[in-house]
Amino acid sequence: MSKPFERLPTHSKPVNYNLTLTPNLNDFTFKGEQVITVQVIEPTKTLVLNSAEIEIQSAKFNDASAEISFNTEEETVKFSFPSELPVGEGKLSMSFTGILNDRMKGFYRSKYTDSDGNEIRCAVTQFEPTDARRSLPCWDEPELKATFDVTLVVDKNLTAVSNMLEVSRTEVADGLVAVKFDRTPIMSTYLLAYVVGKFDYVEGRDADFIKMRVFTPIGKKDQGLFALEVAKKTLPFYRKFFNVAYPLPKLDLIAIPDFAAGAMENWGLVTYRETALLVDADNSSAATKEWVALVVGHELAHQWFGNLVTMKWWTDLWLNEGFASWIEYLCVDHCYPEFDIWTRFVQSDLSRALELDALENSHPIQNKFANASTENLWEALADASGQPVQFVMEGWTKQMGYPVISVASKPAEGDDSKLELTITQEKFQLGGANKSDLLWRVPIQVLTATGHKHQLMLAEKSDSFTVPKAAWVKLNPGCIGVYRVDYSASMLQDLIAALKHGQLSQRDRFNLENDLFALAAAGRVPIVQVLQLADAYKAEQFYTVWSDLLSNLGSVQVLADHLGLLDKWRAFLRQLCEPAYQRLGWDARPADGHDATLLRSVLIGCLGRAGHESVLAEAKAKFAKHCSGECPITPDLRACVYSTVLANGGVEEFEAVLKLLEKTDMQEEKVRILRCLGRARAPELRQRVLELAVSDKVRLQDTVFVIGGACHSLEARRAAWQFVKSRWSWFVEKFAGQFLLSRLVQLLCNDFCTAEDADDVDAFFKANPAPSAERNIKQALENTRLNVAILARDGDSVKEFLAQFAA
Q1: pLDDT per position as a tens digit, 1-13
Q2: Binding site membership for Zn(2+): which residues?
Q3: Do 52 and 165 reside in the same domain of the chain?
Q4: What burial letters (b/e) apply to 595-604, b meaning 16+ CB within 10 Å?
C-alpha cells in the first residue's frame, strides 16, 4: 500500500535559485549546476527537495558535503548533513544531469522540419503542475516562491529565451555561449521556463511600451503577427482592469512544435501549441483566429491572476483557471466585439460545465475544508459589489451539482392582469430520480413578452410571485444563470410559439433547446418532443445556436445508430438544415460577418456528411480543384469539404487527402486533415487512420484527437476501442500522468450505449488502472448506462418519429 502524500518539510524554504543548464540536442541530455540560497527556519540536519529523473553528482551546504538519497515514488531527494544547519540563510550547491525526455513534460525535446527539409531540434519546458523537478531539484510547490537567475549554455547559432530579458552572452569553449538572463520576480517553480532552438520572431511594443515578441518556427514569422496584435491590445486592457502594471520588462509568446496542452502562462515566456498561436493570412480559418485570440487572452490574464498572485496549493487551482477562463472572454469581447464572444462562452464553457456537473461522478469546486483563499475572494467581491456574495456562493462551491427550476403559471387570484408563477428547485440529475435534499440560493431572473423583468432570490424549496400577464414568460433571459428550467406544458408551448415568431433573443433560443435536451437526457421530457422542437429552428440564422443544436442532436444520433436507423437519421438532418443552407449558400457575401462564416461551415459539413446530393457534388468539385491547385478551398470550408468527401468516398479520396497531409507544412492544416481522416467509413481505411495515429507521422500531442476523429459511429467507436486496448501499454508509456490520457478515455468511451459496452470498459480499467483518468472512466461508464436507460425509455418513440423520413 502506497504511503499517504506528504508535502515538503517546513523547516526550510528557497530564496533564490542561481541555475545554469547545458542542454545537448544531440544525445538529449542536459547538465546542471545550481546554487540555491536557502532560508533555514528551524535547525535541521536534512534538506528535502523535489527531484525526478535527475542524477545528482554532488551537493553541499556552504562547506558541508551532503549525503544524497532519493525517494523515487515521492519524487524527492534528501540531503543529509553531519551536523545541524544553523537558522538563517545558506547556500545549497549541486551538480546534476538529466534527460530531455519525449513525454512533453519537464525539460523535454521537440522538433520540427524547416522549409528545406532539415530537422530542427529544440529543448523546451512544461512545468505545471509538478514537473519543474524534472529539470532541477527544487521546492516544487506553488506557495514556495523564490527568484531565479537562469543561464543557458547553448550552441551560438541557437535562440535561447527564458522568463526575463537576456543580460549577457559570453563565448565559452566548443562553439557554445553562456546566455544569462535577468533575475525574475519572486515566483513559483511551475512558472519557470526556458526554450532553446531555432526560431524566427516578430516584435512590437504595447501602449505601455512593454517589449513583445512572438516566436515561430523558422520561415513562419508572419504567422505570429495576429497573436502579436492580440497581445498588444490585451496587455493594456488587463493593466487597466487590474489597475496594476505588468511587472516584467518584456513578454514573449512562443510556438512549440510538440506541446501537450493548448498553452502555458509561464511568466514573461508564454508557450503555445502552434495551432493556438499561429495564424496564416491565406490559410487560417475564422475559427482559428477566434481560438488564438481566446488562448492569448487567457494566458496573459494569468500574468496577473496566477503569476503575480498565486494559489497556496493546487486545490485552489479553480480560482486561478476559473477566473482566467472567464476574463479571457471579457478581454476578447473588448478587443474583437465582432466575434460576439459571450454567446460562444454560453455554449462552450457554461453549457459544458452544466453537462458534466449533472453527472453523479462530478465533484464540488471546493474541498471539504475551505482555506483562506476562497473566503478572501468572496469578501473582496462583496466589498466591491455591495452584494451578499458569500451568502449566495457557499452552496455553489461546497455542493456538487446545480438545481433545475420547475415553473408553472396560472392567473393571479383576484387580478386578471397578472400571472402567478410558482417555482420549485431540486438538484438536477441525469441519472433519473433525484434523491437529494440539497438547496441553493439561486438568483432568478424573469422576462415577459412585454419586456417586464423580475428578479428574486430563491433560497427555499419553492416560492410564488406575480408578473404582468403576457403572451410568454421566460426564466433565465440571456442564459446567465447556472440552472436548468423545466417549464409547464402550457408555458413551453407559449415559448415555442415565440421562437417561431422570432421573439426570442439568440441566447434565449440557445437556452431553450439546450435545456430541453438536458431535460430529455434526464427523462423529464420525451426525446421525441425535443426532436419535434428542432423543426422550429429551421429559420435560425446564428452559428452558436445551430452549432449547439447539431451537437445535441449528435447525442441522439448515437441512439439512432444503435437502432439501425442512421439512413433515416441523415434524412432528418438533411431536411432540418436545408432551409438555412439555401439562405447562406457556399460562397461568402460582402455583408457576411464572422458569425455567418462559421455557420456556413457547420451547415455544409452536416449536410455533406448526411449525404445531401447537391452539397456532396459541390464538395467533390471543390475538392478536385483544390487538389489540382486550380482553385484552393477557402480555409473556413476545408474541414467540411474534407470530411464530406471522406465520409462519402473510398480509397481514392482517402489517398488524395493523405497527399494533402504530406504536402502541407502548416500545423493548422495538418490538424484539420488529421481530425477529418477518421470520417472514412470503410473498415480498412479506418484501421489505417488508427495505425497512423500512433506512428511517427503524427505528433504525440495530436494522437488522441486523430483517434477521437475515427469514432464517428458505434461500429467505428468499438473498433477504435479495441485498437486502443491492444496498444494500451504504448499509450500508458507516452501519456501516463497527463491529461491526454483522460481525454483519450473521454473521446473513446463516452458514447457507448449497451450494458455489454459498459461492462467491457469497466473490466478493462479494473485490470489496467489509469489513475489520471479515473474520473473520466467513471463518467464514461455513467454516460453509457444513461444511454442504455434512454434507449429503454425512448427507443420505440424515436423509431416511430424517424419512420416519416425517407432514407
Answers
A1: 456 778 999 999 9
A2: 298, 302, 321
A3: yes
A4: bbbbbbbbbb
